[in-house]
Every structure is written in C-alpha cells, then in structure tokens.
Amino acid sequence: MPVRGHPGDVLFAGEYELSDEPRTTTDLKIIDSKGFLLYIRQNATKGRFSFTTEKQDKFDLCFYSRSPMGSGKVPDQMVKLNVKSGVEAQDRKGTENWEKLTPLEAKMKEIEQLAQSIAESSVLFMKRKEEMESTNASTNSRVLFLSIISMACLSAVALWQVFYLKRFFKTRKLIE
C-alpha cells in the first residue's frame, strides 16, 4: 500500500493490527522508492512504527502472509492500519508544558499546530503550482514550435511533389 510523497523531514507514525489466523505468519516491511528498508517486523500481529523522511518520497507498506507448505491457500486477513504524518504524528504528551495545559488548551494548541501545518502545505502547493504552470507554458511553446515546423515541412514536400509530378507528366507528354 503506497503512501503519498511528502516533503522532507516529516515524521510518520502508524499503528497496525491484523486479524488472528492460525498457522499464518505475517511480516511487515516499509520500503522507500529506492528499495531501502525503513522498517521490518516479523510475526507482526499488532504494533506501532515510526520513521522520519529525509526528502520527499513515496513509501510502500507491505504485509506478507505465509502459511506452512501443504496447508493450501493463505487465508484472508483483516488489516487495521492507521498512518499519521507531520504534526498529527507527533507525541505531544512528552513535550514540556503539555501536562500543565487543560484539555481545552491542549486541543487548541493541537488545532493551532495543524492550522500552521496546513498553511505550510498551502505555500508548498502554491510553489508546485507555479513550477507546473511554468513547465506547462514551456511545453506548450515547444509543441507550437514543432507543429509550425511540421506544417512547413509538410507544405514544402507537397509543393515539391506538385512541381515534380508536373515536370514528370510533361516529360511523358501526358500534359502540355
């Protein structure tokens, strides 16, 4: 199951729980786009994981189920997976002054951090939008230039063909 790309230095945290199937072992592997192993857990039934990205990337979370040879088909398993990233993944209970806040203040602080994260994401999306618009404009101008060249070449070949056929038919004395 791929996880969308995110900008660098983002914390990912997750919890998983698998349904219990007798005589079945399940392994969890988290792999980045270059094939580097970020997390591995053998005989995974329930647990947590976390890792931090260094740059924007895509990650695959893979659950591999195996059963003993000769036991037939590997039974289906229910997987409960909860993955959080960025501000949502941070454990606020360990930070200083968090214990001193009332539940309402803590929730307000959490919402403030989420709003700040959304604002930062918005700025990132605006930069990406500008880059994509620039790329789109340059691609459109190149396509237009190549289309004009193609039409000019096609017109030149058609004109040459008309003159060639006219000369050919004159030499064969089919037209005067």
From TrEMBL:
Taxonomy, superkingdom: Eukaryota
TM region(s), chain numbering: 143-165
Topological relation to the membrane, as annotated: Single-pass type I membrane protein
Pfam families per UniProt: EMP24_GP25L
Main location: endoplasmic reticulum
Coiled-coil blocks: none
Alphabetical list of InterPro entries matching this protein: Emp24-like, GOLD_dom
Any Gene Ontology CC annotation: endoplasmic reticulum membrane
Keywords on record: Endoplasmic reticulum, Membrane, Signal, Transmembrane, Transmembrane helix
Signal peptide: none
Domain GOLD: 1-85
Family of the protein in this entry: Belongs to the EMP24/GP25L family.
Name of the protein described by the UniProt record: Transmembrane protein
Upper taxonomic lineage: Eukaryota, Metazoa, Chordata, Craniata, Vertebrata
